[in-house]
Amino acid sequence: MASSVNDFDLYRPSEEHDMLRDAVRSLAEAKIAPYAAEVDEAGRFPQEALDALVANDLHAVHVPESYGGSGADALATVIVIEEVARVCASSSLIPAVNKLGSLPVILSGSEELKKKYLAPLAKGDAMFSYCLSEPDAGSDAAGMKTRAVRDGDSYVLNGVKRWITNAGVSEYYTVMAVTDPEKRSKGISAFVVEKSDEGVSFGAPEKKLGIKGSPTREVYLDNVRIPADRMIGAEGTGFATAMKTLDHTRITIAAQALGIAQGALDYAKGYVQERKQFGKPIGDFQGVQFMLADMAMKLEAARQLTYAAAAKSERVAAGGGKEDLTFFGAAAKCYASDAAMEITTDAVQLLGGYGYTRDYPLERMMRDAKITQIYEGTNQVQRIVMARNLP
Hints:
The chain has helices spanning 15-42, 47-55, 74-85, 89-108, 111-123, 238-274, 286-317, 325-350, 362-371, 379-388; strands at 128-131, 147-151, 154-165, 172-178, 188-194, 200-202, 216-227, 231-232, 276-277, 280-281. By secondary structure, the chain is of the alpha+beta class.
């Protein structure tokens, strides 16, 4: 079937998505990039990034309009995260984790819960974190020990959650806890816990290789009594909600990886045109050109896979079929993060000794890229997920 040049939009984002990218890139370069190195060096929360994102309604674009949000689709959310990650991976965890933490409420929560917790998130009055992992339950999340015991109109929660992104900064926490120990994954329920609830406390920030501007801490739940209506969905459905959430949000980790890799490629590309050795720019040497070509090729392949996964995520969220989302979400996250690690490593190489110093941003990007291969399911687990869900 013939098609004119202007209406064949099958494999490109819409004009609105392109405009959003331009807007987020301008904002990120003006308001976030100037602080990225210092945020990493000091290991402090990127408050300037949060302020800029909130002021421009970019901190939680996924929240539906009916709760005061922008109602952005999954691809728009990916683009926001990607463009922020291009200049500062730590800052990109603000929109990414706000989606991760609140998506269980969007997918499975009661109307009352949605109104109560999504409106403040959309306004920028609160952030949302996600509490699944524990000291002894990482890849085997169903092996968690945190308990939630029914007591009248309340549940009482006890346990420790580990590796919680933005812990201590977020006001709200989606917490997975065991309500029926006999049933393993079918005995896990999801709850909203507030930072101000009595018995909630936090461990010291983890000392990490990368994403140093995003606090990662343990969350301690010591006889935390919460109203029973803060359960997300029915009792025993928490683990299913957690897995369904990850099908959608693994794509946001792919987006982070894309952004980090794009930032590294952009910097290396500029550098090799300026740096002269043997009387000419090193970018004129074929060995360097081949490296750049491979970096760009991997990045573009990762982007196409991620955007296709985002489109599937959006169709599933709108009530469409399964769309092989579990496979595509895992594939996008796994491939993009592996590509980001390779691309940032090569970018450091292209700068030689300079790439190894903190005077240039590439060593930070290389350190930041590593976590994308680990969190929201290690890439080894992603390969298990893909093998079990081959399209």
